[in-house]
């Protein structure tokens, strides 16, 4: 199925992906493994749009891709139960299929960094999952990976082990119940080195910090989150505003994003 926009033509697939497994990895945080042909087209930093199997839920749920196994044709997503829609998703079991649209969006660009260089990954809360595949592919390229991930408390910490398998990891918690007390900025501001590339995803406050600190960095990126309706760029429900424009200029998170260079949009 092909949808046309002014800027480009985008191939969007719709497929019933099979649930391989699902488990709760932290309170209200679920990890789901999906299998299907669509996986072959997935890239790190993209997302998929899931249809909730309930006729009263009209809008799909956008969820970031956390891991990709091209050989098995499997992709892992990690999401938080927020309301009824995601609560329904969390009750689905292995063997069931889920109507999936995607893969969608522009993801992280790792072509700009080479073996022997150093990448900084910055994540917060449910923004950590898309950094896992990024870390894996960076490590495979021979890039040194350093991850700084922040959470509210010890019970909210997720995916530390998967990131640690790819490089050094610093964990912060707001209350100090695990790792370093404070925010990701507590760690990053004390680094005595400059990363060759920065990849980040998380809450608006954290992204504002990354966007400001690395605004003039040539290879620093923020992955934005926004409420979506169509997910195809037609409805303009997920726009962010471009910095430095005298007239209002918007970019769509589902099309031009979710990943933007730092200094590009108003976070």
From TrEMBL:
Gene name of the encoded protein: pyrK
Cofactor detail note: Binds 1 [2Fe-2S] cluster per subunit.
Protein name stated in the entry: Dihydroorotate dehydrogenase B (NAD(+)), electron transfer subunit
SUPFAM superfamilies recorded: Ferredoxin reductase-like, C-terminal NADP-linked domain, Riboflavin synthase domain-like
Lineage: Bacteria, Bacillati, Bacillota, Bacilli, Lactobacillales
Residues noted as binding FAD in the record, renumbered to the chain: 61-64, 78-80, 85-86
Domain FAD-binding FR-type positions: 12-110
NCBIfam families found in the cross-reference section: PRK00054.1-2
Pathway: Pyrimidine metabolism; UMP biosynthesis via de novo pathway; orotate from (S)-dihydroorotate (NAD(+) route): step 1/1
Assembly and oligomerization: Heterotetramer of 2 PyrK and 2 PyrD type B subunits.
